[in-house]
Amino acid sequence: MKFSFKSKTEINQSLDIVVPKAEIESQVLSKLKVVQKDAKLKGFRKGKAPMDVVTSVYGPEIRQDVIWDLATKSFSKLAEEKKLKIVSRPNLLPEAIDEGKDAKFKATFEIYPEVSVAKLSKLSFTNFLCNISDEDLDKTINNLQKRMSKWEPIDQISKDGDQIKINFVGTIDGEEFEGGSANDFLVELGSKSMIEGFESGLIGLKKGDKKILDLTFPEDYGKKELASKPVQFDTEVTEVLSPQLPELTEDFFMSTGIEAKDIDSFKTEVRTKLEEDLVNILNGKIKQSLFDSLLEINEFEVPSSMVNSEISNMKQDTARRMGMDPKDMDEGLFPDETFKEEAMKRVKIGILLNKIIEDNELKPDGDKVKEIIEDRAKNYKDPQQVINYFYSDDEQLKNIESISLEEQVVDTLRAEAKSSDELISYEDCVSGTYG
User: Fold this and answer.
1) Residue 270 carries which DSSP code?
2) 1 falls in which pLDDT band (50, 70, 90)?
3) Most buried of 33, 237, 258, 312 (most Cβ within 10 A)?
4) Is the pLDDT of residue 370 over 60?
5) For strand 230-244 and strand 163-172, is the pairing parallel, antiparallel, or unpaired?
């Protein structure tokens, strides 16, 4: 068999496959003989039909199966010989499959990129710093109270922190658009869950008030057809609700999962938990800063099949977070374009991290694996039982080892990269709006 092949540095590959006619004819004849033994053809006893009759009936189908089978095996053989890391199923296009001649195919496919990571000393990252103030602590406790509060209708104008029920109709250039209208729609003022200007525009209103909001959809809005477009929302307030906060009692403390006798000990426990969470959040921001820098200094092509696979994973994760079964997911709700940029980044980072692990011959660190498992187990009633579970389940242990390896890569990057400190507020830190 003859092959032609591009350079291994190219992602998109094509391969010319020629299957000799002699090999085709040999296998076709062999299969026809097998079929002849059991063939039941009109006018002949079982297995007694002449070969020319068997060939006329079964030959075309057998020939086609043989040709495709040989072409597929030829491709697999070459991939193994060349040690190709194929990431997409090959597309075999027949160029010539005439009887009595060599069969010719064009195979197109993608391979895993061969990358050379730039010097890690070129990396730079932001070392985010943050402190929890007394004001941040009080605000957190107030938010806990709000979460467990009862919302009561009030006959007053709406203010930040209230909930407001509205009927609204959205129009663009005077025309209503899909998903732009609702009745008794509940909005929490100050939650930043709506587009900019929507919530602030509803402050100072009471039941029965009407107001037109002239706004603009953000550039990165989820529905691309609405992004950056000016929109007008005709709103009517149907109800204003204010939170009735629970008192800071021992029962309230217990309802938050914290055992405390008084407000001071409760605050101490809450601060401890916030500080533990803050460490993880800051580490996540620092890691993202490192990864962004890594992407910036390493340009390379990635296989579209890997990006598409990651898009599919992200869509399924989004569906699960929304309480939907991915199997019942409406594809129209999650356009590929919404996830494409982030999916591309994730695939690139994954390729770079794998290369760094390979170049530095990193192996999962037992102590770090143990640390991660113990950290996850500490929030359970019986931590030792959880620890035993992780070590007894190969799949779970491999997942932890992968996390450990990523942390080891991050440690390697931090040791080599240049850093600059930056102090950010606790609110910006936990809200994810900064860094």
Assistant:
1) H
2) very low
3) 237
4) yes
5) antiparallel
One-letter amino acid identity for 313? N
**Cβ proximity of 132 and 228 under 8 Å:** no
Tokens 């906060």, residue? 245
- CA–CA dist 140, 274 (Å, integer): 9
- Tell me how far apart the alpha carbons of residues 243 and 84 are, in angstroms, rounded to a whole number: 62
End-to-end CA distance of the chain: 56
**Beta partners for 172?**
175
Domain ranges of the chain: 2-110, 120-129+265-431, 150-244
Write out the H or E segment, with its range, that includes residue 316: helix 304-321
Burial of 193 (0-12, 13-18, 19+ CB in 10 A): exposed
Q: For 216-267, what is each residue's pLDDT tens digit?
A: 999 888 788 898 999 999 999 999 999 999 999 999 999 998 999 999 999 9
Tally the C-alpha atoms within 13 A of residue 53's C-alpha that lie toward its C-beta. Answer: 14
Whether 95 and 106 have beta carbons less than 8 Å apart is answered as yes
The domain made up of 120-129+265-431 has a fold known as Trigger factor, domain 2 (1.10.3120)
Which residue has 């043989």 as its token pair? 66
Strand locations in 131-286, DSSP E?
Answer: 150-153, 163-172, 175-188, 210-216, 230-244
Give the Cα separation of 214 and 371 in Å (integer).
Answer: 53
The CB density around residue 110, as the number of other CB atoms within 10 Å, is 21
Nearest to 332 by CA among 307, 315, 313: 315
Please name the helix (run of DSSP H) or strand (run of DSSP E) that holds residue 14, with its range, or none: strand 12-19
Sequence-ordered alpha helix ranges (H) in 13-117:
21-38, 51-81
On the question of pLDDT at 99 being above 60, the answer is: yes
Closest C-alpha among 418, 412, 287, 305 to residue 361? 412
- The HSE-up count of residue 95 (CA atoms within 13 Å, CB side) is 13
**According to CATH, what is the number of the domain 2-110?**
3.30.70.1050
**Which stretch of DSSP H or E encloses residue 236?**
strand 230-244
282: phi > 0 → left, psi -120 to 50 → alpha, else beta; which? alpha
* CATH of region 150-244, choose from 2.40.70.10, 3.10.50.40, 3.20.20.70, 3.20.20.150: 3.10.50.40
Please say whether the beta carbons of 270 and 140 come within 8 A: yes
CA distances from 66 to 31, 102, 104, 386 (A): 9, 13, 13, 54
CB 164 within 8 A of CB 208: no
Taking Cα atoms as reference points, which of 76, 83, 78, 75 lies closest to residue 112?
83
